[in-house]
Structure formats: C-alpha cells, structure tokens
Amino acid sequence: MSEAAELAEKLKIEGERILQFFSGLSEVDWTREVYTEGTTWSVRSVLSHCVTSERGLVKLFEAIRQGGAGAADDFSIDDYNAAQQEETKELPAAELLEQYKEVRASSVTWVSSLKDEELEIAGRHPFLNETVIREMIKMLYIHNQLHYRDTKKALK
Questions:
Q1: CB neighbours (10 Å) of residue 131?
Q2: What CATH number does the domain containing 131 carry?
Q3: Domain range spanning residue 99?
Q4: Contact, 82 vs 40, CB < 8 A?
Q5: 29 contacts 155 by C-beta, under 8 angstroms
Q6: Could you tell me if 125 and 72 are in contact, meaning their C-beta atoms sit under 8 angstroms apart?
Q7: Residues 6+ apart with CB under 8 A from 81
Q8: Based on the structure, what is the number of domains in the chain?
Q9: 7-58: per-residue pLDDT in tens?
Q10: Helix (H) or strand (E) holding 123
C-alpha cells in the first residue's frame, strides 16, 4: 500500500469514529460548552469547526500541490475560525453531521489520488507554517483527534 493510501485510510477510519461519536449525542449534549477561552464554543461549534477547517485546508493543500505557496503570511486562524462559526451558526447538528461525512469523504478521495512524491511538496500551512503535504495531512487527523478528546472531556 502506498503512503498516500495509508494516510487516506487513517483519515477514513478516524472520520468514521468522529462521525459515530457525534451521531450519538443528545440534543442537550450539542449545547454543552467545550471551550470557554475567548469565544465560547459548544459541542456543535466544535463539529462546525471540524467541517469548515477541513474543507478550507484541503482546498489549500490542492493549491499547494498545484504549485501555490499556501496560506498568506498575514492569515489569521482566529479570524478565519470566527468567520466560519458565524457562517454556520444556524446550521442544525444533523446538517453538520452530513457535511462532516461529505467533507471527510472528499478528503479521503483527495489524499487517495496523490502520488507518494506529491507528499513531499512544500507550502505554508496556517498553523504549521512551512511544511510538506504529508505533514499537513497528518495534522488533519491530529486536529480532529484533539477536538474529539476535548469534546469527550466536556461531556463527562
């Protein structure tokens, strides 16, 4: 199995686990606070963030694969996240779950399409700064794992 195929499979499995977790939440669970520093994020906000960040990041990764530089030097993760939260604030949890499923399936397909040598293409990631596509893909996985862990902790 190629390295790209292995990364795609990891994303697929992790995505299924995240989807299963969020699908099992009650109406009350969706409103529980997960993060309270700065802007308060509920469980619903966390899933919205996973959807919007992954959608934007995979577009960025493709632009880098095509020869682009990546995120602008003055890109603000906080501003981006705030704007995305505002855009998705009215979406019901069921819609976010459907969007997560679609976004992750699209990410898995994109990663599966990569040649292993394309994993070495470098560009600027909004959080990692200058790095290669391989590390950017791994960060997708880690990013959602961190939010999953924090959300589970908030629901205890």
A1: 17
A2: 1.20.120.450
A3: 3-154
A4: no
A5: yes
A6: no
A7: 49, 52, 53
A8: 1
A9: 999 999 999 999 999 999 999 999 999 999 888 999 999 999 999 999 999 9
A10: strand 122-125
